[in-house]
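Researcher: Structure for this, please.
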Amino acid sequence: MRVFMQTPAAGADVPRYYQLVLEQDLLGGWTLFREWGQQGAHRASSKREQFLERDAALAAFERARDAQLGRGFRVMFSQGFDGPR
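Model: Predicted structure, token format:
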């Protein structure tokens, strides 16, 4: 599962982005990757969280997505869940 969000371009401000990726690992756990920064910048920040249960990972994904939507980000791309449940 993946979602890419971006702030709208406003004047001279460079748009910011926030990306969330949720993947199942080889041992059956779940990893939530977060990446954020400015469009076109050479530096970005990232964070990785591990979860044992799919439901906990999905809840964290949704909380992070909703928090960024509340900060003015807009969804530019989303990809559904393709892995085993």
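Researcher: Any notable elements?
Model: The first strand starts at residue 2 and ends at 6. The beta strands are 2-6, 16-24, 30-38, 44-51, 74-79.
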